[in-house]
Hints:
Layout lengths: L1 H25 L4 H27 L7 H11 L1 H4 L2
Helix pairs in contact: 1-2, 2-3
Amino acid sequence: xxxxxxxxxxxxxxxxxxxxxxxxxxxxxxxxxxxxxxxxxxxxxxxxxxxxxxxxxxxxxxxxxxxxxxxxxxxxxxxxxx
Length: 82
């Protein structure tokens, strides 16, 4: 089971790294340009991440540490879409 969790964590980190890469690219750009890039490139990644987390969550024990972490992330996902 720990291999399963490691695969989930690795994929989550990879997906989040993609978001950080975009943020790195937009750093220092004018606010309107940052917003445009975030809307076109970041939003689809966030939507995909949310869908993936929901799919993974459905396969886990409710009490597992991974499930707890995923529920925490999902409960805060609205703030990222603002």
